[in-house]
DNA sequence: GAGTTTGAAACT
DNA sequence: CAGTTTCAAACTC
């Protein structure tokens, strides 16, 4: 019954409510972190301040629903028992149906209410704002706004999950993240969403026990701590995923099945362990795993060293976690904490090796590898770079670095997959199921990939019987692990089978030392010489062994010469050669070619002995600010040569620069394709990398050099700036420099 | 998407 | 080294 007294109270309450809703009250709230009487109202007031403005800043017309759905899905799965959550007032709220504002309000309301007497959410929001402001939003590769957004989202998430309240329910976090996503709204590019989601995922690992809600703790401290921990957790997991042991002494290897439980653990666990762990089957964790794997993926794939990887693997298997695996880099100094950053650095320095077989340099490389592969990413034969990169000095550095790298990978991944990162992610986990489980429509996949981004970015195979351990396999031949885009079956070309891969490789090399060497050797002038007459390549550019075409007339990609964008030479045994790049007996086919083999061999050997030289060159290049350009290593030059065509369609200038870290890719992007009409879908420039391979003989006035200069087809075309700049450098460096020019043009989505 | 063609790789 | 087989990419329908 309503008594007069109660009515009076109601009136008072109402008036208070009005007061609180007033602009003045809101203003006051904004000015002071002091916890208001009614947390709920406060939070409501704060919300708009904290997030309302974001959307406008990062507004973009497209919001990736896919990501969102994924995000939701993931978390929902994480806690099926809580498809909905109830607000304190007992009203059931469907998180998925709430509009953004409602979600935000609910989220924050709950957050505030959940704190018994803790920090006002306001303080948290403010902190976040400050944090975000201070974040370094500059990203070398990734759009700065993207980084900002990520950081922002992360910060918000962290704040919500830890500083602003007990990290108890994933659902809540999810909602917040969702809300943020939407609030940030319209972030252009699907990648953003993925990045955001990923960033949030990372923090999902924040276990309550690590960052337990402590009201007595300074919000700032808590906040930063949470971020730090989150990063560490992410690193840990990523390290594990990548086959790296991060922490010592840990025994727990299980993946927590409870949302708030995740994190710890994963100490000595290897990828295998994780995968095998039944708990890991939990979709939630899988997602996390995948996300993290994505991180590793990119990193690893960029620079794998067969030899090194082998050693690394031993560590893993031994469980002797003692040393942090030398993952990505040959740099044994890499510590778990440094890993992410280092990886990044490595991206800069793809790897030095004898046979980096092209691929390494291909844009594909850059691309991500499926998680598994990611586990070791690309393999680069031969010694790896020992270049050391200074570890991050602060968590913040680590934070930004890792994300930068991560985001980059993500971007690439997404791009290459036609904007369907999810698919890949699912396959990433392929580590587990991988192709075997999803051998379905390899062709389909291939096409998709081809369409997606030219597919040039990465080696992708479709092996069914070779186990990807034969040269039939493009990935293997390229010296890289198979990756998610691959549709191979019973693939052994994976990090987990490193031993096998290495052994097989050795075997093959013992049979043919040049088996993994570049198939196409291109002279330094190849690029510029071609000029208008694309029908003939310079004499200096030829297929190592020559082709043996009988029916294709060397006019199809069946022909390795054609595929490699070079003319046939005297080495070819082809019949009815019509190679558009130069017929066997045409002007381009120099009778002196035979000497090639000899030189080539020489080069390879020299390269092997001259690793240190490369390192030095690379460092020099780095110092010159050419980080983004992969070092031209002899090995790298290798496979690429013929890669240009290989597989996929001609490289397009439009290819994202990110993806083209390899000299090859860069070259591809060079954009000269226009000079080459139809057949040569690819840009002969790619081959430039080749040069690297044979710098010595080219420079030494070898027969080939001579040939080049005298090539009848030769048409001097003023080289791009970069070329000119490089002209005075050693061949190896020259290559590196050359690739630079293309870089700009490769800007993603340009 | 399935089937065919092709030529390199692998094998004998 | 030559011939044959196997293989996977390229290609066609």
From TrEMBL:
Main subcellular location of this protein, as a coarse class: nucleus
Domain of life, per lineage: Eukaryota
GO CC list: nucleus
Chain positions covered by the region annotation Disordered: 77-97, 625-651, 698-730
SMART domains from the UniProt entry: CXC
Family, similarity comment: Belongs to the lin-54 family.
Protein name: CRC domain-containing protein
Organism: Perilla frutescens var. hirtella (Perilla citriodora)
